[in-house]
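In response to reviewer comment 3 from the previous cycle, which asked for concrete evidence that the modeling workflow produces usable outputs, we include below a single protein chain processed end to end. The sequence was submitted unchanged, and the resulting structure tokens are shown without manual editing.
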Amino acid sequence: HWINSKAKCTVVAILFIFTLLPGRTSEVSAEENMDEITASELYARSAVLMDADSGRILFVKNGQEERAMASTTKIMTCILALEKGNLSDKVTVSDNAAAQPRVHLGMQSGQAFKLEDLLYSLMLESHNDSAVAIAEHIGGSVEGFASMMNQKAIELKCTDTYFITPNGLDAEDNNGKHHTTAVDLARIMKYCIMDSEKSEQFLKITRAESHEFSDCEGSGSYSCRNHNLFLQMMEGALSGKTGFTAEAGYCYVGALRQGDRTFIVALLACGWPNNKGYKWSDTRRLMEYGLENFHYRVIGAEPEKVTVKVEGGTEGEFPDMDPAELDLTVGTEAFSILLKDSEEVSIDYKIPDSVAAPVKEGEVLGKVVYSLNGETLQEFPVTASVSVEKRTFRTCLFYICDSLMMRL
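The workflow returned the following structure tokens.
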């Protein structure tokens, strides 16, 4: 009986451990071919892998579906506070901020904190009261700050995002629910780590292992620890933010940089309790897919030689009726783009079959378009390399006279 009981306990313990381990319905071995990835291999209901430099989407699963995003909201709260406020600002806590539900710092109404300390509280511990205190300080009210968040979303071309709260708690008003999409969330993270003038401060805060502080009166002692496990999961892990609410499920947005490549992963609805580890499994899967399959390639280094016929033109020889042929200068510049090995960039010269004289040197006569899967990557002008005069009776007469004079 004792042995059976011990065996049962061992089995239960093993099963419990496996429930905590991240994984997928189809486990991926270390030797698995990473050339392709399918939506069914991910737990997240919405997922995106983005090239952070160009903003190009490298993989997407239900990327435009609107979903609650929980505390991943706080990356927008943080970057706006960094851009609109000063780290030394004194933030006074309101009754509203102090009344926010867990997870919270435990601040009291009337207390004051430095904005910098509250940003660590916001991003490392995901404190909901700190988010509201920050929002009221920067925007005058939660509603005012939400308006700033939505304006910034529009500027970033996040067309399927709507903010109501600064902390990401599930909310709804007359305009809809607090929501985003995986594509929009990745765009916001790109802005935070790549494009904002405060990106370095954002990275410093979100990468910190811990932070200790007190309020402005020097009373109370507060300690924050970073809960972004991805920072220890993969070499080059750069930043990230977790989130969970009953409606959103587990969410995550994170970034990784190795060498000259920077990737962003955004996950929404990536499991519910007790599947907290799913987001780490999906993040690793997508990041490894990006690292193994996408590399920079130089495009446009050697443009083709192109010409155009000039109707009614002459280049100095006898101005007969045949069109002059003009060499064109392709004003291209070599550029690098992150491409999968199987991807090829299309080059399209949009040049007319012929043009009418006169043509001036440097005149734009067309363009060369580099595109990938129908999306334009770069455009460069195509110009006339020399001038071509218009053929007239006068030019013909001068040519005949010059020819006769040379024979005398």
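The CA atoms of residues 328 and 384 lie 5 Å apart. We consider this sufficient to address the reviewer's concern, and the full set will be provided in the supplementary archive.
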